[in-house]
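Minutes, project check-in
Item: structure for the 103-residue chain
Input as provided by the requester:
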Amino acid sequence: MRLGTLVYGFGGFQLDPASGWLTHGQERVRLSQAQARILLHLIVNGPHVASRFDLSEAGWGGTASDDSIEKAIQHVRNALKPQDRQRVLRSGIRFRTSRRRLN
């Protein structure tokens, strides 16, 4: 997935995937390139369940260890409110909030 200049809005958040900035009100969190790509994948493909393979492909082009995937997911989870994502046991993660492109 190619990162562009689009900014995505969802649940009070804004994600600029090109820069990695996740903004909520006055609070800003910098995501790594892999974390931004994972979050972008969840936003664009929500509400479908994303598997570990999907997240590995989105974040690293498919060359990521389980530990790297888990750490990236944990960082994204910490940056989001709990209601914005849902873990689906034995399947993956689902993004549950409405989303929109801001530019």
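Outcome recorded: The CA atoms of residues 51 and 91 lie 6 Å apart.
No further action items on this chain.
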